[in-house]
Amino acid sequence: MMDLAVKNGSDRLSQNEGDSGLSASSGGVSTALASVLIFTIVVDILGNVLVILSVYRNKKLRNAGNIFVVSLSVADLVVALYPYPLVLTAIFHNDWTMGDLHCQVSGFIMGLSVIGSILNITAIAINRYCYICHSLHYDRLYSLRNTCCYLGLTWLLTALATVPNFFVGSLQYDPRIYSCTFAQTVSSYYTISVVIIHFLIPLLVVSYCYMRIWVLVIQVKHRVKPEQRTKLKPSDVRNFLTMFMVFVLFAVCWAPLNLIGLAVAINPVKIAPKIPEWLFVTSYFMAYFNSCLNAIIYGLLNQNFRKEYKTILFALCVPRLFLMETSRCATEGLKSKPSPAVTNNNVAEINV
Q1: How many CB atoms lie within 10 A of CB 47?
Q2: Cα–Cα distance list, 34 to 31, 73, 84, 345 (Å)
Q3: pLDDT at site 59
Q4: pTM score of the predicted model
Q5: Of the ranges 53-57, 133-137, 201-205, which is most confident?
Q6: d(CA 153, CA 196)
Q7: Range of the domain at 196
């Protein structure tokens, strides 16, 4: 009897140690996710505010072509101001405690941000393609009025693409990622449609535009007849590479989540149980992390943004100087003549 009691006590002790180990492991994962999210929020807010201020203050950046860059920054910024802090709160409480209304609004804003980002990246790629490959028609295509219409159309399509989530009921809380977000298993047909229309098709359009640009750049680099060539300045190529890198990082960060969603939607019963939770969680937080990367890329690869970042950060140490320069910039307004995204002083010339 004593041996049996000792054995039962030992079993209970082992079980308690196992539960404690599981709890510690879960706590470690939560801490890691919270750390990643805090870093993302801070860099997202700081970086995208710098981008917006840079375009607003710098005459070389303040042009019609950069409207899409600012729009992309806004799409990245909104998630750091509302949905991400709610996710962080859910991580700290190990549950969603903000109610269903915040859940639905948070999921909707996150959807706006995601679809808005991919559509703005697509708009930037088309802008780059028109500027480099069809430069003779660029000024007409991207007048200030036309660019504003394109921007309005981009966000109208974003809203129209996000609203159906309310009718399908796909915005739900997922305890694995502590987020109210798009539930991939609510409707297989809807999930497949979302992945194809809002991820794969835009990626194909962007890939086509950048492929055509790459072909032209290679042709210029290995020119055979100098009198029949397109003149591209080194700054044109650098600016193209900057936006190309933004596209690549977006595709890399969002591809795992979309591919998992597509696989699960095709065969939910068979595929869903086989997706490891760690892979699903990692794919989501990779997607979240993407929102803070664009501003870093602009600073690393574009000299105009890098200089303006330094100027703004220095001016913030002297608030009076910052306010004076900002007021001066506000009086100059937006240039009516359009120019390519990222910089205003690059002109592609065509020799016929």
Answers
A1: 24
A2: 5, 23, 10, 42
A3: 80
A4: 0.82
A5: 201-205
A6: 20
A7: 31-350
Query: Does any domain span residue 9?
Result: no
Structure tokens belonging to residue 50: 């710098």
Q: What is the pLDDT of residue 319?
A: 64
Task: Kindly report the CATH number assigned to the domain that includes residue 311.
Answer: 1.20.1070.10
- Average pLDDT value over all residues in the chain: 81
- β-strand 171-174 against 230-231: which pairing, if any? unpaired
* Residue 227 reports pLDDT greater than 60: no
What is the Cα–Cα distance from 234 to 32, expressed in whole angstroms? 41
Q: Residue 145 domain-assigned?
A: yes
d(CA 229, CA 213): 14
CB 86 within 8 A of CB 102: yes
Quick one: CA torsion of 49, 55, 58, 59, rounded to 10 degrees? -170
Q: Can you give the pLDDT at residue 220?
A: 74
The closest alpha carbon to 199, from 290, 83, 280, 100, belongs to 290
- Asked if 186 contacts 165 with a C-beta cutoff of 8 angstroms, the reply is no
* Helix-strand-coil split of the chain, %, nearest 5: 80, 5, 15
| Cβ atoms of residues 285 and 274 within 8 Å | no
Q: Is residue 255 part of a domain?
A: yes
Q: Which two tokens stand for residue 256?
A: 């795992």
Rounded CA separation 56/164 (Å): 35
Considering only CA atoms, give the Rg of the chain.
24
Pair of tokens at residue 213: 């640009």
The number of domains in the chain is 1
Residue 186, pLDDT score: 84
Say if CB 131 and CB 348 are below 8 A apart: yes
What is the rounded CA–CA span in Å between residue 265 and residue 246? 28
Q: Is the pLDDT score of 346 beyond 70?
A: no
When mean pLDDT is compared across 80-84, 89-93, 108-112, 225-229, the lowest value belongs to: 225-229
Tokens 């597509």 belong to residue: 262
Confirm if 127 and 341 have CB atoms less than 8 A apart: yes
pLDDT mean over 222-243: 66
